[in-house]
Write a structure and sequence with these properties.
It contains six helices and ten strands, in the order αβαββαββαββαβαββ. It is an alpha/beta fold and 209 residues long. It binds S-adenosylmethionine (SAM).
């Protein structure tokens, strides 16, 4: 890789198209989306190119990937992507740098963060989504999850163990626990979409009052 080439995640390369296909079915034709934990930027670049009615705000807790995010967006010809911002979900309010969001979001998308961060980030993600989603807005959470009464795939079992060895605070989360955190802030699981490689795309919305 040269100094200027964007960071590359083989998993993001594989899963970006199946996720985009699902987003096309779930999301309305247009809106403003916040991506949490953008990482390399492969997802936001692909989604922005494939969902022309949407404007995307990428973000991450680490600023060192911002060049990669903008690099992927340039490479994909993805306009309608705002410059990445520093956002640690544990901050309150978001983005936590004294420049509050001017608008609420029609969608908040977060992939592959909950298992690679302490469990407290789940409550923080839900609380932030409840604060920053429009009334009809959707929270989309992608990644591997453990499910009560469902056998865990050998791949996810091994992945969970390797995560916990790397950091005892990491690990694949129980879907029931994630859903409970959502309920605490008035969000409800609307859809649970099975995705390739034993991942799920979870769609949360505000519980009708
Ligand atoms: C495995 S990468 C996922 C990147 C991308 N979403 C994807 O699926 O390819 C995990 C990302 O979560 C981010 N992250 C970890 N803790 C976070 C936090 N507290 N708030 C926001 N982002 C966080 C990391 O900086 C990293 O970019």
């Amino acid at each position: 890789m040269t100094a200027n080439s964007p960071l590359y995640s083989p998993a993001a390369d594989r899963n970006r198209e199946p996720i985009l296909q699902a987003l096309r079915l779930i999301l309305p034709p247009q809106g403003l989306a916040l991506e949490i934990a953008s990482g390399t930027g492969q997802h936001v670049a692909h989604f922005a190119a494939g969902l022309p009615g949407w404007v995307w705000q990428p973000s991450d807790a680490q600023a060192d990937a911002f060049d990669s995010i903008t690099g992927w967006c340039a490479q994909m010809g993805a306009g309608r992507v705002k410059p990445p911002i520093l956002l640690n979900v544990m901050a309150s309010p978001w983005p936590g740098d004294n420049s509050p969001f001017a608008q609420q979001f029609d969608a908040i998308y977060c992939a592959n963060m909950l298992h690679i961060s302490p469990w407290a980030t789940c409550a923080a993600l839900m609380q932030g989504a409840a604060r920053h989603l429009t009334p009809a807005g959707l929270l989309l959470v992608y990644g591997p999850f453990l499910e009560a009464g469902q056998p865990t795939s050998p791949g996810n079992q091994d992945f969970d163990q390797s995560l916990r060895q790397r950091d005892p605070d990491w690990g694949i989360r129980q879907l029931d626990d994630v859903t409970r955190e959502a309920h605490h802030v008035g969000l409800r699981l609307r859809q649970r979409l099975p995705m390739p490689a034993n991942n799920l795309l979870l769609v949360f919305h505000r519980r009708p009052t």
